[in-house]
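Convert to structure. Protein one:
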Amino acid sequence: MEILAYGVQSDERPLLDAALERHQLRMLDVFLTADTAPLAAGFPVVSSSVNDALDAEVLSLLAAGGTRLVAQRSTGFNNIDLAAAAKLGLTVARVSYYSPFSVAEHAWTLALAVNRRLIRSVNRSREFDFRLDGLMGRDIHGMTVGVLGTGKIGECFARIAAGFGTTLLGWDVAPNPECEALGMQYVGKEELLSRSDLVSLHVPLLDSTHHVIDREALALMKDDAILVNSSRGGLVDATALVETLRAGRLAGVGLDVYEEEADVFFTDRSVQGIADDTLARLISFPQVLVTSHQAYFTRTAVGQIIDATARNVDDFAQGRTNENTLVPQGG
């Protein structure tokens, strides 16, 4: 089948080529928007990335151009209007599983980096400044670690936390027995936030979790707590987070996602800068580390994502559905 893949990173290209070699594949590094959707005319399959905008307008343009399958290369799909896709007769599939270790390990990378002031330390050493002033961190051992969302990724994060020798608190709609076996105590969100030295977010972005970390939630956290978000940007009220940091609260913040990241992340803004004042302010705080939605970006995880995408395309071609199908053929 003819496939047009949007938002392809350079490291993805050889993996996509190998996995979809039996198809006619064209790859673009631009995102899928109303402006770029006409490029898909004549392609029955479009493969999208997590920061593409698949609203009703874009989906209508794809359908008008002959697209029949949208195969998203991510687990999250809050960027796709599924109701509009169904009305247009578009089949939609995602990747329901890839290595949870990739995201959990990156979340800990962020937590450790902000705790031990690694960015400030590296920047200093590049200028041959080897003072220790302002670089003091804390032992992770003995901390209370709160995990919001204890699915596959949250469980992996908790296993690493247990290895450090921490006290584990969890919050979810239902307890995970594997986390309970690690000694995790499930508590209410308010208690978790007020007791934790480190809070990591691993819940999906739903109406019920949008801004789960809002002004009130941030006020409950310890002044010297660490906050990590490697899940979805919309979980954190970024404006409230800036206000909290300006007040001199929170010892460290690690963000791999941001609620308005779609027009910034995965792009080079080193020359023109960014117009998003909130993001610019977040990046300016010395205790904040922002990475560009790369937690999933390991060879293992990306390989699994691309293999699942190839299977989604093959199953669609054969008239089959699988566990990744969000909108089946015929809506």
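Protein two, convert as well:
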Amino acid sequence: MNDSGDSESNEGGRTDGTDAGDRLGGPRYWVLLQVNRWVFTGAVLTVVFLVLVAASRLGLTPLRLIIEDQNGLEYLFSAFIGAIITGTSIVVTINQLVLSQELGAVGQQRERMAEAMDFRQSVEDAIEEDASPPEPAAFLFELVEGVQNRARELEAEMETERDEELRAKVADYVEDVTGNARSVKEGLRESQFGTFAVIWHALNFNYSRKIYDARQIRADHADALSADAEEKLDRTIETLKLFGPAREHFKTLYFQWELINLSRALLYISVPALTVVAIMLMYVDGRALPGTFLGIDNLVWVTSVGFVIGISPFVVFITYILRIATVAKRTLAMGPFILRESERDEDLG
């Protein structure tokens, strides 16, 4: 969205075309967006396990005493059964509701196909290609390259411009566009849809700011722009405007892909989690597993493991939703609107 979550700015402009506030770099976005969801889940569960084990060394009431006197295991683990079953059922149901949007009569499917082909034709006309690639990463690659080419045509048109201020503004703008496009293309070149890489690199192309900057140049120098230069600027804007719908389309497909993965992950992990919870309820009490390991009661080790496995479906759900929510937040506004904090000019108030 990056969320995950990249550029350095200087006095004369952005070196790679990404606004300071539009970046997806840093450890926060790396964790929220790029880390493998199973690795993220494992890390969270490991932290919870270590905290539970460490708590037994704080001088609190011994776990074995709580289990013997208050039947603590039953209170702790019986709630997991209903929570796991109910939570998994709800998530799978929501997933099916989302995927039901893909179902429809043949007329609706033909209309969707026609709209998709119309959009593809618009992109091909804008980037001057006979046939655009069918694979998402390659399609976005060609579209970004088309934006880059339009910007270079604009720069070439301005070589004979006498207005030094206008020429400098256009040069900075073209450097911004081409620098950002170059870094995004490099990432898209090896990306495969189904991984987060395609969406990650698409998020790093800040087309909204580029549309705004181009329109601002046209508004500030309408009298100085030649007819050919204005045409080149308009072509750049029109090509940029195609990137928004393309990114949103692939983002929607990715969300559906991730929801399917989430449902499958929950189904895979729920049965083992329920099995472990049942074992804890059926066979473990205050007299089980006497002795210690590394100075810690064996019952603490086993109960901590059981608790971590019991909450694992919930943690899997959190890790997937965190990425989806982060991307959604970063792409709430499509078009020339910037909702996040960004580099401020005097004209942005």
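Residues 128 and 146 are 8 Å apart (CA to CA). Confidence is low (pLDDT under 50) at residues 1-22, 342-349.
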